[in-house]
Design brief:
With 377 residues, the chain is α+β, with helices and mostly antiparallel strands. It has three domains: 134 residues, no CATH class; 122 residues, 2-Layer Sandwich (Heat Shock Protein 90); 96 residues, Actin, Chain A, domain 4, CATH 3.90.640.20. It is 18% helix and 33% strand. A nine-stranded antiparallel beta sheet has the order 4-3-2-1-9-8-7-6-5. The chain has a seven-stranded mixed beta sheet with strand order 10-11-12-13-14-15-16. The chain has a three-stranded antiparallel beta sheet with strand order 17-18-19, covered by helices on one side. A hairpin with a 2-residue loop joins β10 and β11.
């Protein structure tokens, strides 16, 4: 089996994980060839609409360099198209299907281009002059791609949001290596408020620790010789279920693959921070009787996750704090996220449970910032 065919199998195994947790950007497309058919601007939401951030910029010819760098931002709406600070206020969009060969314009893909495992994909022409890239290809569930001066630039959905009147922007940490062969990039949330300075430092540390740990994993990882040319990767993005002047609750989604493994994997990492007192929140501090609370949460999760088609690993739901380490506050309830294998087989993907605040009010400690929030909502 050819290398890219194997990569397609490996990456396809991870689609259900990433697509479930990437920020809301519709990726529904018509995969049938339509070389002459175009769509109106109102149809641009078929995969392209949204905010995107460049995670890779690669010259396609040896000996060339790029003036572009990871972190370039693209925004696509029916009304306008922008790249960083340059905006095209009246784009003339059209969408057609192109082949990989036509998109690359005779260039050869670099070995790190994991996303190009389809032979054809939708291509958006913007009709904008003076804005590059002027066209974008939806090359996978995860990426848009453009060509600028012979350089391949890959974009993923930007996790930045506005929540509760506060803006969260994204910084990007990106790196690649040829020996061992890997690609890593992490989106770092930056809360645009002076009171969040300490939190922002913690969030950057949370991302860099995971990326550094991935790089260190190669010290003891033996890559089979026949897979030496396969690309390992780690991608990190985030969502912000709650952001208020007094607290923030953030969840990171970490997807990774080490060449030689059977498939990619995924796990969560959360940061809950008391902005008023400048400290991290711990689950045990929310409750007057943590042991009693864990018993209740355990039973609630078992009932919620019990489904005919979902084999349940009940040991992952025992009333222990470590089983509920991935917790977030939302506007509706306490959200608990479970990594693959913790409560169900890998094929079932990561699981999550939302416990309504009304179920927890009698258990929380009202003197704790997070507990008080639960009691009031």
């Amino acid at each position: 089996m050819k290398k890219m065919q194997v990569m397609a199998v490996i990456l396809a195994a991870g689609v259900f994980m990433l697509s479930a947790f990437i920020p809301a950007v519709s990726l529904a497309v018509d995969a049938t060839p339509m070389p002459d058919e175009t769509k109106t601007p109102t149809d641009v939401e078929d995969g392209f609409t949204g905010n995107w951030i460049a995670y890779s910029v690669t010259p396609l010819k040896s000996g060339t360099t790029s003036r572009l760098t990871p972190g370039v931002r693209v925004k696509v709406t029916p009304e306008n198209y922008s790249v960083d600070e340059t905006t095209c206020p009246a784009p003339n969009y059209s969408i057609k299907t192109v082949t990989k060969k036509d998109f690359l314009q005779g260039n050869t893909l670099p070995n790190t281009s994991l996303d190009f495992y389809e032979d054809q994909f939708p291509y958006l022409t913007t009709g904008c002059k003076g804005v590059e890239p002027a066209g974008l290809a939806l090359v996978s569930y995860h990426s848009l791609a453009g060509l600028v001066d012979g350089k391949l630039i890959l974009f993923e959905p930007d996790s930045g949001v506005s929540v509760g009147g506060l803006d969260v922007t994204t910084d990007l940490v990106s790196e690649s290596s040829e020996q061992p062969l890997y690609e890593i990039h992490g989106q770092v949330p930056v809360i645009q408020d002076p009171s969040a300075e300490k939190l922002n430092a913690l969030l950057k540390k949370a991302v860099t620790e995971e990326l550094d740990g991935f790089k260190k994993s190669f010290i003891d990882w033996e890559i089979p010789p026949e897979m030496a040319s396969y690309v390992s990767f780690m991608w990190i993005n985030y969502d912000v279920p709650l952001l208020a002047p007094q607290m923030a609750s953030i969840r990171f989604h970490v997807d990774y693959y080490n060449a030689g493994a059977a498939h990619p994997n995924h796990y969560f990492k959360v940061v809950n921070f008391d902005l008023e007192h400048g400290k991290l929140g711990e689950l045990k501090d929310l409750f007057t009787d943590p042991a009693k609370a864990y018993e209740f949460i355990s039973k609630f999760c078992k009932a919620d996750l019990t489904k005919p088609d979902l084999p349940l690993f009940e040991e992952g739901l025992e009333p222990k704090e470590e089983n509920f380490k991935n917790w977030n506050l939302t506007d509706k309830g306490l959200r608990l996220s479970f990594d693959p294998y913790q409560v169900a087989p890998y094929a079932a993907g990561p699981q999550e449970v939302l416990v309504p605040y009304s179920e927890l009010r009698g258990l929380v400690k009202k003197t704790d910032a997070f507990g008080a929030f639960i009691a009031q909502n």
